[in-house]
Hints:
Layout: E1 7-8, H1 11-20, E2 24-30, E3 33-39, E4 42-46, E5 49-56, H2 61-68, E6 71-83, E7 92-107, H3 110-125, H4 134-138, E8 141-155
Amino acid sequence: MRRSDRAVTDSQKIDAVIQSCDCCRLAFATGGAPYIVPLNFGFAWEDGVRVFYFHSATEGQKLDLLRECPVVGFELDTGHHLNAGDTGCQYSYRFQSVIGTGRAALVEDAEGKRQALTLLLAHYTGRSGWTFPDAALEQVAVWRMEVLTLSCKEHT
């Protein structure tokens, strides 16, 4: 990171930035060009590792790319605000961002899917205790991404 003065290293603060975001962008490698998709997500610590959960259709380009190369890049950002100045050079932009890499894999079992979807919904609603019929779980792909590398920075 070029601007080390903007680095966030406190784990709890990084988690707070992640929780304040409403979109996680995943970058897949495909044929020499990146493919980036914005996704809703759930987030948790599991066995000392940050893990993100996503859901999608059971077929399509995302899953094809995931199977082809499970290592992905990710980015989240929040806290956007323009700091005005008297001249163009005095303008700046406030933000918080998290960028990293992860290894993605499908969640195959029904209970794992339930837990992941509960985390995802809790992230957006603040509620828990969701139920998911088995038939619905069969019709959705759920996948997890273990974080391999991560950096967080903010400009306030």
